[in-house]
Amino acid sequence: MEYLRRRVVLIAFVPGAALVLVALVIGIFLVQQANHVRGLADETARASNDVTRTVVGLQERRGHALLAGDRLAEYTGYTQRIDDAIAGLRELTRAAPDAETAYQQNTAVDLLVATEGLYRADSLALAGLDGTTRRLFTDAVGGYRTTLSSAAGRLTQSGRDRYEALVRGEDWSTLTAPAASRSWSSPAW
Description:
With 189 residues, the protein is mainly alpha-helical. The chain is built from six helices and no strands.
C-alpha cells in the first residue's frame, strides 16, 4: 500500500513539475522578449530624438538661408534633407515590436510632418513670397493642415483634447483667417 501511495504521489508530482518547468521556460522567454522589446524601444527613442533634433536644426538653418541666398535652391536643399530625415524615422516604425507601437510611432511621425509643414510655410512667408515661392507656400499650408487633421483622429484622448484646444485657440484663428480679415498688431517697443 505504501508503494502504491508513493507511486500516486510521484505520478501527481511529475505533471506538476513539468508544468513548473514549462512555466519557468515561458517566463525566461518572456523576460528575454521584454528585454528585446525594451532594447528596440530604447533604440527607437534615441533615433527619434536624434532625428527630431536634426529636423529642428535644419528648419532653423533653412529659415536663415532663405533670407540670404537663392531662396528656391536653399528651400529645396534643406527641405529635401528634412524629408530624408523624416523618411528614416518613418522607416523605424517598420521595426516596431508590435502593431500598437507602430501605430503610435506612425502618428508621432505624422505630427512631426505636420509641424515641418508649418515651419516650411513660416520660412517661406518670412523670406517673402513671389511667383515661385507662393505655390510652395500654398502646398506647405495645405499639407500641414491635412496631415494634422488626419493625425488628430488617431491621437489618444489627451492628445485630441490638446489638438481641440489648439484649433479653437486665438492663435489658430489668426493663423487660419483670410489675409484681409487679419488684424496684425505691431509690437509695442
